[in-house]
Every structure is written in structure tokens, then in C-alpha cells.
TrEMBL record:
Name of the featured protein: B-cell receptor CD22-like
Residue ranges crossing the lipid bilayer per the database entry: 130-151
Gene3D superfamilies per record: Immunoglobulins
Highest taxon in the source lineage: Eukaryota
PROSITE patterns noted in UniProt: IG_LIKE
Record domain Ig-like: where: 46-124
UniProt entry keywords in alphabetical sequence: Membrane, Transmembrane, Transmembrane helix
Pfam family, one: Ig_2
UniProt entry tagged with the keyword Membrane: yes
């Protein structure tokens, strides 16, 4: 990639982006020739220091969570220090750190050109009893919802069955019968309605007989 011309190439405000191999090319009327390459290695202090958590950051009391510190630097950072917010002294060292207690933790990466600290991450430690209560609560809630769904389904089925049987009519004896085959209560198992026929009236005419009276 062509970067400049002239016998001297000057780089101002040098940064890590300028690292790499450089060579020059000389040209005259008889031809051209390239020089040997030289390596430009730009050193810089750690930057973009980040802490990552293996897991969710929420652990049960007695367990641990691992924090890992990473950075961009040249040469690579070899020294890492771990701190807990509101504490002046380090709580650990090395690129990884196992947190056993709640709090906000951050790391500092170091090389011979400087250092930089990361943003803090939160670790939450919960007691086993709290975790147990949460688990039981979730299970109980799911059981209640399932029970309500089953109850509604059965009630709907019973209602549909009752409506179907109530609409059944037997014309031979004018009796409507509705039975709930799933009911366990004997008081409500069978419902029978009798439709009485209108009263029939029979009128009879009096009979008059001829009566003869004989004198003695």
C-alpha cells in the first residue's frame, strides 16, 4: 500500500495503526528497485480493558463465579489486579479471579507502558434458602395455573353435555330426561321433568226414567 513519496517519510501522531513493515522504491530512467523492509512496532499501554463473567453473575452461597480480564496492549499485559468497589487494596491478581461474595468488581491491566482499569461488574450471592423459596414458589404457581385450566376444561365439558341432553326430547311419553354421567353427587345425577297432560272433563247427561204411580 502506497503511503507517501520523497526521500523522507514522516509519520506524525503515530499510533498502533502505523505498526507494520515499510520499504521504499527508487526509480530512474533505467529502472526501479525496492529496498529491504523494516519493521515498525508501536508500543502502547493497555486499553479496552473488559471483565467478562462465566455464567449469570448470580450464584448460590458457597459457590463461586469466575471473572476474566482482557485488554488490548503491546506488549500484551502480563499483570492484572482485581479490586472490589469501595476497597482500596486489591482482592486478587491474575487474568482470572474467583468471586465468592456479592459486590462490584473490576480489574486493572498493566504493562511497562502504563495501565488501565475496566468497568465494574456485579456479582450477587444468594442464600440457599432464598433459592429454595424461589423454586417452590415457581412450582406452586405452575401447579395452581394447571389446576385452574383442568377445572375450566371439565366445567365446560359438563356444561356442553348437560345442554345436549336437555335438548333431547322423547315424544312418546312427553318426558324430558337429562343425566350427568360424570357427576358423583346422587342429588344431581338425574333431572326428570314430567309434562302433565291437560285435565280431561267428562260430562254425562242425567237419565230420566218414566215413573208410573198406581193407585191401590
Amino acid at each position: 500500500m502506497f503511503v507517501g513519496s520523497g526521500r523522507i517519510y514522516n509519520i506524525s501522531k503515530i499510533s498502533s495503526d502505523h505498526s507494520g513493515e515499510y520499504k521504499c522504491r527508487s526509480i530512474n530512467e533505467h529502472g526501479e528497485k525496492y529496498s529491504d523492509a523494516v519493521m515498525l512496532n508501536v508500543m502502547y499501554a493497555p486499553r479496552n480493558v473488559v471483565v467478562s463473567i462465566t455464567g449469570s453473575g448470580v450464584i448460590v452461597e458457597g459457590d463461586s463465579v469466575t471473572l476474566i480480564c482482557s485488554s488490548d496492549s503491546n506488549p500484551p499485559a502480563l499483570n492484572f489486579s482485581w479490586f472490589k468497589e469501595n476497597q482500596s487494596s486489591a482482592v486478587g491478581s491474575g487474568q482470572s479471579f474467583s468471586a465468592l461474595q456479592s459486590g462490584r468488581f473490576y480489574c486493572e491491566a498493566h504493562n511497562q507502558h502504563g495501565s488501565q482499569r475496566s468497568d465494574a461488574v456485579t456479582v450477587t450471592v444468594k442464600g440457599r434458602l432464598v433459592i429454595l423459596h424461589i423454586t417452590v414458589g415457581v412450582i406452586c404457581g405452575a401447579a395452581v395455573i394447571l389446576t385452574m385450566l383442568i377445572w375450566r376444561s371439565r366445567m365446560k365439558k359438563k356444561k356442553d353435555t348437560l345442554e345436549t341432553q336437555m335438548n333431547h326430547f322423547r315424544p312418546d311419553n312427553d318426558i324430558y330426561t337429562a343425566s350427568d354421567v360424570e357427576s358423583t353427587d346422587p342429588l344431581y345425577e338425574n333431572v326428570t321433568m314430567n309434562v302433565s297432560r291437560p285435565c280431561e272433563f267428562e260430562m254425562t247427561e242425567p237419565v230420566y226414567e218414566n215413573t208410573m204411580h198406581e193407585k191401590p
